[in-house]
Task: structure prediction
Amino acid sequence: MSSRPADLILKPLETRQASAPKAPPKNDLRFFALCEAASAGARVSALLALVLSIILPLAACDPGRGASHVETAEIMGTSFSVKIDDHDDPTEAARAAFDEIRRIDRLLSTYKENSEISDVNRRAASAPVSVGADFLKVALASRRYHGLSEGCFDPTIRPLMRTWGGAGREGRVPTDEELARTLPLVDFEKVTLDEAASTIGFKQEGMELDFGGVAKGYAVDRAIEVLRGLGVKRAIIDGGGNFYALGTPAGRERWRAGIRHPLKRDEIIATFPVTNKGVATSGNYERFFEIDGRKYCHIIDPRDGRPVEGMLSATVVADTAMAADALSTAVFVLGEEKGMALIESLPGVEGMLILQDTATPDGFRIIISPGLAEEIELLLPGSA
Result:
């Protein structure tokens, strides 16, 4: 995607007041229904999952295209799908991809007592713990995104998730005192990583990791590498909306992705082309919790321990699904100015933010990075 500013496109996109969008194309709606059905049985974590994916690889379920092999499986608490366009044995290739995703889940799931991350959480405050190559790679990437985001992406957020989850079960928000006790445990700077020795440690008792903001993206990337190793050149792997588009679909130049409308569940607000890129969205408008009549975003700012306000969604396109996964969370927490500045500072990264704005008729506005603005199609009145 070009990084050159497109002032005539970008400027009106920043200021356009959004109202009811046009209905998406018929095939897009079919895809939406299929993917909604596929994800209906997905396990939803308690209150505070780091990432809510609300972006759809539209071409993945398009019945108007030629024969393609699609398989789905419930892994990591969400619905994963593998779509393969060009392989002599797509069933075996999809099985290999799912096996790799399950392997990553066994390493990084905090819901599994015998997972590598659970072992680290139990022991790393006492002494450095040896970890495998995958765990180290994810931890090192997390350190990078923590630094890039001024701490807004922080996998040590698990103690805060526990605090909010416990208070929520009692029908209340955490007290200032509870947050003050928990916040010192949330700081990736207190994680020691020895790349040469492949060990990880915590500087403070009570710290815990949760790679929920990168695990699905990393699993998608690993599964894509498995497909590449088997000779697959055209595929999409989607983990609950966090996906990677490999190559190009048969008969088309690029895949298309769609972003859901922030306030209308069954509509798509934008589509854009994508190939050999990862895409992810973090958002709060379908996932929230309510206490004493007030709705709270499920995404917590690790800097102050409180739910993020003002953002509806942050979509990021990056070279890997893990990068898109982590950056969408970071940008959502950073907010409009710093979030978009981060997107525009990184080579090969583009993004779209949807922000609450009570001054507009429909309560939100859209900001798009220059490179993506050149290619995105907003399904809004007057945006054609």
